[in-house]
Amino acid sequence: MLYYTRLRLLGILAICLAGILFCLPNIIKQPMSQLPWRQIHLGLDLKGGSYLLMQLDTASLEKDQLHSLREQLKQSLLAKGAGYVNLLAIESKNEISFSLRAPQEHDIVVATLNKLMKTNDNVFTFRETNGHFILSFEKEAFDAKAKEAVSRAIEIVRRRIDETGAMDPTIAREGDNRIMVELPGVSDPERIKTLLGTTARLTFRLVAQPNESFGTALLKDEQTGRDILIRDHIAVDGADLTNAGASIDQQSGGWAVTFQLNSKGADAFASVTQANVGKQFAIVLDQKVIEAPRIMSPITGGNGQITGGFTSQSASDLALLLRAGALPAPLKIIEERSIGPSLGKASIHAGITSLGVGFLLVTLFMVIFYGQFGIYADISLLANLGLMLGILSLFQATLTLAGMAGILLTLGMALDANILINARIREETEKGKPPLQALQSGFSHAKATVIDSNVTAFLAHVMLFIFGAGPVRNFALTITIGIGTTLFTTLLLTPLLIMRWYSRTRPKKLPV
Question: 6-48+341-505, which class in CATH?
């Protein structure tokens, strides 16, 4: 059991050496080309930075879905040639109502509504009384849509933050409709707050004629400051954008945002511009008109340009927002905290001090109670710490104060495992067994207990990592990694050190 082949010996030493190499970049300040230069990233509580807690505006989401459904219904009825009167979106009741224009079109309308229900995942139901229809949202279906919207919002927030170059952001869901964002090292998050607070819903709509009233809305023109009458119908949706970037407008010399549409968007863009030459075509961002140029000729390439008095920064930010995609609903910042670098340094100092003092006490305990075997256990603990830090460095994980607590707790668990092994060996020695037999029996009896206890703890902390968030997740991560390194060092490295000593000295009595 305790015989080590050359291959097994080299494998254990290679793993320990790899852990040290990956750990070194966190200690050495100057990069060395010979080392895999990956470092552990410090979390918000250690490095300082900004914390934002945002809430998705589900009321706005509900309102948008209501008006979107009304527009879909309108277009579907027009496509079928079915007439209607008083098609209204009643926001207070979250309902849509309309009446038949001709009784003979009843079956067409019902078929249209049934088809619309399927395409919208049965998010609504409808009822009819004497040719008057009422569509109502289903609460359970809407709640599912809201959860899906939060998941989409998290991905969009992550893309937007990644594009700013912020290092090691932590983005996670909190509760049903809240999103937590931690930005280590970002002391002034104003630009990021602006980016996250912008829904960035881009649409292209025709400007309404003066005599149009139904199906239109007054929106503010950002260039002139005046209201402009825009059709509700979305001719081209910004969701069909595939790319966007900031560039210099060749005609004016000012900054502009260029964009490219996918095939669906390009076809729709070409169709609407071909049919409406000479009319104004508004570019609307979050219910504000950026510009409303006149269509001079059909645009068939799927490429376009937005000009609107941009600066270099505003053009870059708008392009970033368009690339990342529109939020399904506005995000409201409900809590904001900033942690200064001095407080972060104090946390680092406190964490390192507690880790150092804890490790020192553990090593002294082992030497005092188990003598020479305690020294081997201390070497194993040191290798355990190096492997943990090396693995965290390899994956460039983020370490928080809770993570440091997890490392310290892991060392305590590793200490328990080594105490169990040494206590077993001592018991076997006191029974009068020869040294080699005492070692073999001690390791054999302790092994099953060490594995059982650590596997149980491993499964518990995996669940904590999966379902936890923030500091709890980081705590679980360090302990989960630590349990793996503890099993390796306790069951492989410690026996190796003791057996190498035994093979050289062949003692008549074990110093334990």
Answer: mainly alpha
